[in-house]
Amino acid sequence: MKKRRKRQISDSFLLIILLLFVCSLRPQAASFSKNAPEPQVKFKGDNLVISWKKRPDLTGYEVYKYNVNTRSRKLIKTTSARKVTIKNLKNGKTYYYQVRGYRVKKAKKKYTKYSNLLRVQVYRKSTLKELLLTALQPVGSTMYIWGGGWNEADTGAGIEARTIGVSRQWKLFFEQQNSSYDFHNTKYQIHNGLDCSGYIGWCVYNILETENGKPGYVLLAQQMAQNYALRGWGAYTQAGRVRDYRAGDIMSTSNGHVWMVVGQCDDGSVVILHASPPGVQLAGTPTPGGRTDSEAVALAQKYMKYYFPDWYQKFPNCAKGLSYLTDYSQMRWDITGNVIMSDPDNYRDKTAEQILRDLFLSR
Q1: What is the pLDDT of residue 15?
Q2: Which CATH architecture has domain 40-121?
Q3: Angle at which helices 352-362 and 295-307 pack, to 10 degrees?
C-alpha cells in the first residue's frame, strides 16, 4: 500500500514537471518597449528605401515626413513590414523622415518614441566620364590661388565653387601671367583661380547641382576623401593601404592636398587632375618604383602640349613626386547607380591612355 502511494506521488510529480516544461515552450508575448525603432536609409535606383529591424513587441510601424521649417510631421505610411519604399523624389532637394512603432492590445494602441531624424539629400546622377569631363573644364586656363574656391571667411565654398560652369575671371587672370608666376604673391585673391580643395569642390558641385548658390562641397583637403565616403558616395581606403588607382578616385593627404585620378598606366604610374602651383592641369606620377620617365608623365605632357598650348608654353612641367603614390588616402566612388555615380563607359576597367583618348574625342 505504501509503495503504491509513493508511486502515485512520484507519477504526479513527474506530470507536474512535464506540464511546466510544456508551458515553457509556449510563445510568450514580448514586453513592450518605448524605445524608438532604428531606421536606416539607402537608395535603390531612384527610389529611397527606409528599413528597420522588425521587433516582436510591436504590431506595426508609422513612417512620417518631417518639415524642418514648421517642425511638423505628416504620416505617409503605416505598415507591419520592416521597410517602405519612397518614390518620385526630386534631385537637389533634402528630405527628412522619422519612424515610430506601435502595439495594439485590447483595441488600444501604445506608441514608441519617434526615431532620430533621417536626413536624405537627393543628388543628381552622374557618371565617371561626366566627372572627368567636368574636371577638364578649368584645365590649362586657371591659376593656382591659395584660398581660391573658398569664401571670404575661409569656412567653406565661395561663389565660384557654388556656380555652374567656369568663371570668366579665371581665364582673364591666367592670360595676364607668365612663366615666372609665384602663387605666394597672390594668396587669397580668391576670385582669380582655385586651390586644390576649391578645385575638387567645384568639380563635385558641377556634377551634383543644376543651380547656382546651393551649399558647396569645399572643405579642408585632408578631409575630403573621408568626408565624401562618409556621405555614402563610395569606399574609403587609408593611406598606405591603397593598392591601385581608378578613374575618378579622390585622393587626400594629411599634408593638405587633394587630387583626382584620371587613370593608371601599365607601368603603375598615374595620370592625375589637380590644382597645384602653378595651376589646374594634367600631371603624371612616377612609377611605384620611382622611375620619373613614366608613361603617366609622357601622357600628361602630350595632352597638355597639344590641347593647352598656351599653358604648356608657360608651364611645361607635368611631373609630380612619388609621394602621390604613397601618402594619400582614397575615396572610390560607388558606381552601382544607387547613390550618385555609374560607369556605363567602363572607365573603371580602362587604362589612363584609353580614358584620355575617349575624353578628348568627346570634348
Answers
A1: 56
A2: Sandwich (2.60)
A3: 10
